[in-house]
Amino acid sequence: MNKPNIFNYATSELSQDAIICYILEWAKLENKAFDENLHTLAINFLNSLFEKFKDIDIPKEYQKIEIIKQYENIDILCIINDEYSIIIEYKTNTKNHSDQLKRYFDKVSKNFSKTKILPIYFKTGDQSNYKNVKENGYKIYLRKDFLNILTSIKYSNDIIENYTDYLQNIEDGINSYKTKPINT
Q: pLDDT, tens digit, for every residue of 100-140?
């Protein structure tokens, strides 16, 4: 029996965007004073996004972090040190459509031309094919990537713990074929 979890009900992409923004907020240097472990978790998350781009060095420090929700319909735009623009297109059980990835990249290229753009296709549901995503230059960040970060250190935060449990339950369900007998 599982304990109640808000994310069993807050399943919309906007709810999921909020948790990502919340975690990114913890990466801000001024929030380290409130909870050093959550700050470290958020820094690890940012680092993991940068690690998807082999040709871009991870910043030594995150001095300035600006988080913008729904900028030009982009789920999350995160400006780092006025040098990097991270586009996060978040998907649960839907997939990209109507040329949105290209449009989002073009908008950021035009409006933040002085930054290096890091386009991320953040997927916590499942999808069989990422060909179009890759063709648009986006790096794929999957549920297992995020779970690796969320479980990498100890922290105490009901919101993030609920979200981690929610994602872990999805992951366990998807991987249950490894341990459950197949009905014939």
A: 999 999 999 999 989 999 999 999 888 778 898 999 999 99
Q: DSSP 3-state helix, strand, coil percentages of the chain (rounded to 5)?
A: 45, 20, 40
Kindly report the number of other CB atoms within 10 A of residue 114's CB atom: 7
Around Cβ 182, how many Cβ atoms within 10 Å? 5
- 38 with 150: CB under 8 angstroms? no
DSSP secondary structure string for all residues of 23-75: HHHHTSGGGTTT-HHHHHHHHHHHHHHHTT-TTSPPPS----EEEEEEETTEE
CB 92 within 8 A of CB 59: no
Per the prediction, the chain carries an average pLDDT of 91
